[in-house]
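Journal club side-thread
Mid-discussion, someone asked how the predicted structure for our own chain would compare to the paper's figures. Pasting it here so we can look after the session.
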Amino acid sequence: MAKLGAEPFFFAGGEEGVLLIHGYTGAPGEMRLLGEFLHRKGYTVLGVLLPGHCTTPKNLSKYTFDDWYAEVKRGYARLKARCSKVYVAGLSMGGLLTLRAAAELEPDKAVVMAAPIYVHDRRQFLLPWLHFLIRYVKKHQRVFDGVPEEYCVQCEAMPTKPLISMFKFVKECKRGYLKNITVPCLIMQSKIEHTVRRQSAQFIYDNIASKRKELVWFEHCGHILTLDKERGAVFNKILAFLQE
């Protein structure tokens, strides 16, 4: 049996549904605390498991951004079939998938957390060649104060090949794709994290066409907003946005 944090989760609740999307090499567990919080507030919550994740690095390397978006669409359809309103929220690469869902599926609202439009690792530009030389990058165990181990599950190594498809979508965003987003959006990012550059959140905020949009910064946590020190503030801000 898979670990708790490695499994997708579904919490049946009220008529408003929330689709939660984890990041690249992450797992549903990193979204589960948020999902439990929203379920306690009466929402129906679905946390998807993106294809290839929580298996092996070799298996994960077979998948692309389009494969992961297909799972997002399946999850969205599942919620749409039972809920009067559906919201989408994603972290990191899940934030990129949320942007695509916001443009193409037009959920009632979207929450984008730490989406990597600009990243600190400049090797991204070398990926078309680098992935032949460096196929996997070792991941270190994540630890967050007060967070049980099962919420911190992740892949043991990061395959580099799938990142090519992810950054292809990032290029589309930089070329004008974000103007297709008109649904209300909440954009959130840490000012001090070392994975995604600060200008990512600002770029998303400046380029989406949504009339209702908000940009919120955090100053005492890292990239994984849903597990780090300010997660309580993150959860309450998302709740306030959904209830508006």
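Post-session note: The mean pLDDT is 92.
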